[in-house]
Amino acid sequence: MKIKMLKTRQGSPDGISVFTYCAEDIVEIPEELAKVFLRKRWAKKAESKNMGKAPENKRVKVRQKTAK
Q1: 10, 18 Cβ separation under 8 angstroms
Q2: What's the predicted TM-score (pTM) here?
Q3: N or C: which end of the chain has fewer CB within 10 A?
């Protein structure tokens, strides 16, 4: 889950390694750890920017002028 940290806190995504998650950082962490940070209000869900649909790639047909 992608979250934005509101406060600097330490957490262990795998139960072995401990990481420091700094305030204002946007991080991708396991859902279980993210739920703890969200519940304690140490983080909020990261807003995803909706870019909309990708533009279609269309070739432009160019007409060549013919000499008269």
Answers
A1: yes
A2: 0.68
A3: C
